[in-house]
Amino acid sequence: MKRWITGMVISLVFPALLAAGCASGGNAGNGGSSMAANGATTDGESSSGIQERTIKVGIGLNEDHPEGQGIIKFKELVEQKSGGKMKVQNFFSASLGDDQKMTEALQAGLQEITIPSTSPLVGMVEEFGLFDLPFVFSTEEEAYAVLDGPVGQKILEKLPEHGLIGLGYWENGFRNLTNSSRPVRTLEDFQGLKIRTMQTEVHLEAFKALGTNPTPMAFSEVFSALENKTVDGQENPLATIKSNKFYEVQDYLSLTKHVYTPFVFLVSKSFWDGLSPEEQTILREAAVEAGQYQRDLNRQENEKARADLKAAGMNVNEISDQDRQKIKQAVQPVVDRFAKEIGQELYQEMQSELEKVK
Ligand code: KDG
After folding, report:
1. Among the four 89, 170, 196, 345, which has the fewest Cβ within 10 Å?
2. pLDDT per residue as tens digits for the range 249-284
3. Is-contact 179 193, C-beta < 8 A?
């Protein structure tokens, strides 16, 4: 956790130095749109001080989820740091649309902030696919080392060309499988299950390699698809399974921990470029501090959710080391393929980062 704070502080300080003209270079990726000394943005607009503004923040999860609590904390911090001038309006449970629709709204300048999983964005920034690779992270600390280090920051720098600014990564967490048919303990138990996946080719191919029939789908459609038995199962972190009451329509929870998914804090670039350096610093600081709060809360909630889901009637099973090895072997060709397609060099850089913290 200490490493994460250091990492996040670095990602906070560098763009601020850039904005103050103390560093060279263009966009620093996570929020450092290149600024002239007088605060005029590269788009020629100029802004100074703190203006009266309303910032719409939309997410797909509900208020009970740690991500919902995270944007409530973000709202508190922004309004406190701006003396109440910058107001945040939070929208939960995909009330502004699903992840892809909200991301498009940022690009069109119709919404200011959203914080989706990285997976639905791989069609725009394929490097986010590194975080979809099964079993690439074993602990949250390993994930933080990559996300808050050079690899994670390099990927954020691909966002401005798509009309987006990335201010860092929050935590969705390790994903586990639920279904309504049977306990999944071995590779054989996956066979034939219809599983909803996020809209990313890596997951589609990985769940095919496991012998299931995968169906990519927006998160907002998952509960009804499970309820109508359009699909047998889905996979998500425990906090999401609990906060979205999937236990009402799923009998079996298998603790596969097959992927770690981050959330990425996205800001509309057209909105960002119109902010003064002072306003940009307020949003960047609030995103980092609320992100630290959200990661801590998410880990506590994921710890607690396992017992809560059992108490809610789910049949919970572990995966033995021997069976996990067989599952890993089954998806290894998918990891090898997409590591090559996404970029062997960046994949190797990620592996080197991981070696430092193993
Ligand atoms: O907006 C919420 C989604 O980004 C998040 O829940 C994604 O894990 C996710 C899923 O399964 O779609």
Report:
1. 345
2. 999 999 999 999 999 999 999 999 999 999 999 999
3. yes
